[in-house]
Write a structure and sequence with these properties.
Layout lengths: L1 E6 L2 H23 L2 E5 L6 H7 L13 E5 L1 E3 L9 H13 L16 H16 L7 E4 L24 E6 L4 E6 L1 H4 L4 E6 L5 H9 L18 E7 L9
Parallel strand pairs: 1-9, 2-3, 2-5, 5-8, 8-9
Antiparallel strand pairs: 4-7, 6-7
Helix pairs in contact: 1-2, 2-3
The protein binds 6-phosphogluconic acid.
6-phosphogluconic acid (6PG) binds next to loops.
Length: about 240
């Protein structure tokens, strides 16, 4: 099931995203005793994380039963300003006082990116006793159509057996760490978050254009047995026809 929801602005989108997060978390904890979520990086989700950790939302989830992972990570120390872990720690984990045992970050201290990816693969397989099936994956989308750190025409797009890989991104001249389509498409729920006019052209291509997942990797996220939601503000949805 794919649902595209357009709301007026970022704040309204965050309220909707928080409501979905709370609903999915409540159902997972009720049915399986825990809620597993892969967080998005970048700047878009910051305000959502602050809202979830804020007074209106924080008491609506049994956070002790929430286990946090990261859909991708920059290959930098966890204290680096570019670190997705650091962003989530500042906006979500510290305000919620999340215990370390509920947080599974990529081990970016590893000497080489591949080693970090191999360790994270093991972490996922141990936690899920096999291939991961997240209750929820949160994702953003770049103006070039990438998502997580699945960038256009990069090796990671071709990975079919692993859930976590290191991915050389030529256009950035750096290593990234990312979950693969295998992991993302096994999720029970995927929520894409996007806002701002600058995302409108790529969202037009992704949602209404030809299917070109090598060029627009976000198109490759199609949960096998899960729900896919696109939560957009008016700016990001500005060029959509439907
Ligand atoms: C990252 C993200 C990446 C992000 C997009 C959008 O590590 O940066 O995982 O995929 O979601 O680049 O970034 P913004 O939210 O900053 O526009």
């Amino acid at each position: 099931m794919r649902e595209i929801v357009v709301v007026k602005d970022k704040d309204e989108r965050n309220v909707m995203a928080a409501a979905k997060f709370i609903k999915i978390a409540g159902a997972a904890i009720r049915d399986r005793g825990r809620f597993t979520v892969a967080l998005a990086g970048g700047s878009t989700p910051k305000s959502l994380y602050r809202l979830l950790a804020g007074a209106e939302s924080k008491d609506k989830i049994d956070w002790a039963k929430v286990f946090f992972f990261f859909g991708d990570e920059r290959y930098v120390p966890p204290t680096d300003p570019k670190s997705n872990f650091r962003m989530a720690r500042e906006t979500l984990f510290d305000p919620l006082r999340t215990p370390a045992e509920n947080i599974f970050r990529w081990p970016t201290e590893s000497a080489v990116a591949e080693q970090a990816a191999e360790e994270y693969e093991k972490t996922l397989r141990n936690f899920f006793t096999g291939s991961p099936r997240f209750d929820l994956v949160l994702l953003g989308v770049g103006a070039d159509g990438h998502t997580a750190s699945l960038f256009s025409y990069t090796e990671a797009l071709l990975e079919t057996s692993r859930s976590a890989v290191a991915n050389w991104v030529e256009k950035l001249g750096e290593w990234r760490l990312t979950m693969t389509f295998r992991a993302l498409n096994a999720a029970a729920n995927v929520i894409f978050l996007a806002n701002g006019d600058e995302k409108a052209p790529v969202l037009k291509e992704i949602l209404e254009g030809a299917f070109q997942p090598k060029k627009y990797p976000a198109q490759g996220v199609k949960p096998d047995r899960g729900n896919l939601y696109w939560l957009l503000d008016d700016g990001a949805a500005g060029l959509l026809t439907d």
